[in-house]
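Exercise (ungraded).
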Amino acid sequence: GNSVTQMEGPVTLSEEAFLTINCTYTATGYPSLFWYVQYPGEGLQLLLKATKADDKGSNKGFEATYRKETTSFHLEKGSVQVSDSAVYFCAFYSGSARQLTFGSGTQLTVLP
Amino acid sequence: NAGVTQTPKFQVLKTGQSMTLQCAQDMNHEYMSWYRQDPGMGLRLIHYSVGAGITDQGEVPNGYNVSRSTTEDFPLRLLSAAPSQTSVYFCASSYRSLTTNNEQFFGPGTRLTVL
C-alpha cells in the first residue's frame, strides 16, 4: 500500500550546517510530493511541493527534487538557522487514494 | 482571516465520555478534513468533507463521527472515548477537493488525553 518513509529524528545541527532529511515513498501511479513543516505549538504549513518527475520544489532556502527512479524526495538546506527548528513531514498525494499520505515526521533542532 | 481554528487546545476525558472537537475556517474552503497525529506514525486521515452535507471516511474512521452542516464548520465527535484515541487532532481545509495543486491549511491542533 501507499506509504512514506522518512529519516528518523531527532536531528540536531549547529547553525549554518547543511541539512538533509531523507524521504522515500511507495505509491501507485505518479503522486505529487510535499514537505510540510510544523513549528512549535502550530499546525502544519506547506513548505514546498513537486508535482512531476525531476521537478524541484524550493522555499525559504529549502529544496527537494522529485526523483522517480529512486522514489525519493529528500529535503535539503545549505545553511540552517535556529528559526528552522521544527518538525518536518514528507507527504504525497495520490489521486487513486484521494488523500495525503504522511511520513512520521523528523524533529530538527538547530543550536546557535 | 483567522484561517483554520480549533477548540479546545487541550482536553482530558475519561473512558466512555463523549465530546466534540470544533473546527472552523473562514476562507470559504470546500474541502475539510480531520487527521490524528500519533508518535512515529505521522498524520492519518479520519474523515473528510468535500462540501456542506457531504462527508466520507478516511483511513481511521472508527470511533469518530462528523457532519458538515455549513461550509465553515466541521466538528469531530467522539461518542465514547477510549484510551486508544489519545492523540493530537488536526483539522485542515483546502479551496477545492484535494488535488495536486490545492494546498491544505492546518489548524493548531487539539491535544486529547483519554484516561
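Further reading is listed at the end of the chapter. For now, observe: The CA atoms of residues 53 and 68 of chain B lie 5 Å apart. Chain B touches chain A at residues 4, 33, 35, 40-45, 48, 58-59, 90, 92, 97-101, 103-109 (CB under 8 Å).
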